[in-house]
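TL;DR need structure tokens for one chain.
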Amino acid sequence: MLLHIDSSADVTADSVTRRLTETFARTWRTRHGTADHRHRDLSADPVPPITPAYTTLGRRVEREGFAPPAKVPALIESDAEQYEWDLTLPLVTELLGADTVLLGVPMYNLSVPATLKAWIDRVTFPGALTDPDTGESLLRDTRVVVVMARGGGYGAGTPRAHLDFQTPYLKGYFGNLGVPPEHLHLVVAELTRVDVLPHLAGLEGLEAASLARARATLTALAAA
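>> reply
TL;DR here they are.
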């Protein structure tokens, strides 16, 4: 299954990440069909931020030695906790059912959109992504393709490279979840606001080359 998640607040016509994730998804559907393509739009259908009931339930699960999802209902002690679990379990189940996770992640204020962070906070429920028998990550065989877009240039060697908190965060997050480095693909399109930001004038060629590389890489990954 392909779990395709977009987090851009922009409509497709204005969103580089939405257009690029669709490039991947279209190629993937050509190879695998449409039945196993699940699209989640975090802007149109936001994941609610976690609440005290979520964290209280999570701590209780941790005290039980990171109880797996099947055992969580027996630990719920309030309607508020039940509500949080009812929001969380479908997202965890959806993530664990995916062979490939495709994320569209524009850079907002040097990092990731709040809509994506809300999804991350919710699916990373204590014990939910770990095999209770072996302690291994349940995402160890999952391929993750992250499509990032930045209005400016933040690549290695650029003056703003040190302000890229998007790449290290996503690498660290998925690595900490147990996604092997060879299964994590970060695809970047840079200088995407060259048409509207005066200080980027003259960099149109670099923007076009960056976008072309991203499209080619995504097409190849989707066809693999």
